[in-house]
Write a structure and sequence with these properties.
twelve-stranded mixed beta sheet, about 375 residues, flat, ten-stranded parallel beta sheet, Udp-n-acetylmuramoylalanyl-d-glutamate--2,6- Diaminopimelate Ligase, Chain: A, domain 1, UDP N-Acetylglucosamine Acyltransferase, domain 1, alpha/beta
Length: about 375
């Protein structure tokens, strides 16, 4: 990435709160997020300790690295920081290019109900639809082709990227971001039959199935979705409305692309829900909990504060506060990885057992043959 202008290491260190080791006058014009792919003229960022061990392969003129790196590489020019990830956040925040947002006011092609309220300085882009009695906060930006239902409340300083869908009665706090195509307030997945269904019988252990019609009757979903302040929802993520009450996403929680959050879930503060994760209905997720990419939770589960469900795992029981679980069905991560390591040893163990059996057979033959 090219900087808007050349900067020396001293200037960059001041920007990110770091300390220069080496020549602070060295000028750089480009930065690289990867030390292993950096060019000779780049400033490279070293995010992980395992990359520190490979710095001898880095061609960059200087690096941003954790404190202590200078001990192993005293001749390298560095900007030393406590948290390299935070350093690049500061750099990118300072150097981010201008984004193209609609002008303030309501675009002529937008359809805004006469009973809707638009806050001061809000930007309503082309072909946006805003339903009756909805309220849009000050300085909120709604980009083209978004659809906002009726009686929706959106706070101040939010950004809704193109083609977002916010259904009736949903509430969005201030400083929230919805990436393109995010969907809030679709009906939760709830149906019932007049007579016990074959599925219910199967689960109960009976097999007296019937071929007679037994229609699935939709359970009305009369709740809503509430996003608290500073929530971000990724592209094409889906958050279903509650059957009754609210599906709640706590303050500061970040939801990645293609995530599915079912009805009546309650997520705490500052959670991370990574791409393609799915959360079944009526789960309770504690503050700062993390769900890795593709992780799945069954209905009615609880994840305690700071709990972690690793990527690709499937939880079928509660996870206590601070615990890390992995695998399907999920179990404590140490147990899972120990079990997996043992599983990889099975072919060798099997060969050893075969060899032992062969040796025992030979011994038996020798012993019995000597009698």
């Amino acid at each position: 990435m090219r900087l808007p202008q050349a900067m020396n290491l001293g200037q960059i260190a001041g920007l990110i709160g770091g300390r220069v080791h080496g020549d602070s006058a060295i000028m750089v014009e480009t930065v690289s997020p990867s030390p292993l792919n950096a060019k000779a003229e780049d400033l490279a960022f070293v995010f992980e300790q395992k990359l520190v061990k490979k710095l001898s392969q880095c061609k960059a003129i200087a690096v941003v690295a954790p404190f202590g790196t200078e001990v192993d590489y005293p001749e390298r020019n560095m900007i030393l920081v406590e948290r390299p990830n935070l350093a690049i956040q500061k750099v990118l925040a300072a150097l981010a290019p201008k984004r193209f947002y609609p002008d303030k006011g309501v675009h002529p092609t937008a359809v805004v109900d006469s009973t809707a309220t638009i806050g001061e300085g809000a930007c309503i882009g082309p072909y946006v639809v805003i339903g009756p009695k909805s309220k849009i906060g000050d300085r909120t930006i709604i980009m083209p082709h978004c659809v906002i239902g009726g009686a929706v409340e959106i706070g101040s300083d939010c950004i809704l990227h193109p083609s977002c869908l916010v259904a009736d009665y949903c509430k969005i706090g201030s400083h929230c971001i919805l990436q393109q195509g995010a969907s809030m307030g679709a009906d939760g997945f709830g149906y019932v039959t007049e007579k016990p269904s074959n599925f219910e019988k199967n689960i109960a252990g009976t097999k007296d199935f019937s071929d007679q019609p037994n229609p699935l009757l939709k359970i009305p979903q009369i709740g809503n979705v509430v996003l608290e302040d500073y929530v971000e929802v990724g592209s094409y993520a889906t958050i279903d409305r509650a059957t009754m009450g609210a599906t709640v996403i706590g303050q500061g929680t970040k939801i990645d692309n293609l995530v599915m959050i079912a009805h009546n879930n309650r997520l705490g503060r500052e959670c991370l829900v990574v791409a393609s994760a799915s959360i079944g209905g009526s789960c309770s997720i504690g503050d700062r909990a993390v769900l890795g990419g593709g992780a799945n939770l069954s209905d009615h589960l609880k994840l305690g504060n700071d709990a972690v469900l690793s990527g690709g795992s499937g939880a079928m029981k509660n996870i206590d506060a601070g615990d890390i679980h992995a695998g399907t069905p999920a179990m404590p991560a140490r147990e899972f990885f120990a079990m997996y390591a043992n599983l990889r040893r099975l072919p060798r163990v099997t060969d050893d057992v075969k060899d032992l059996k062969r040796r025992i057979a030979l011994l038996e033959e020798q012993i019995l043959g000597g009698k």
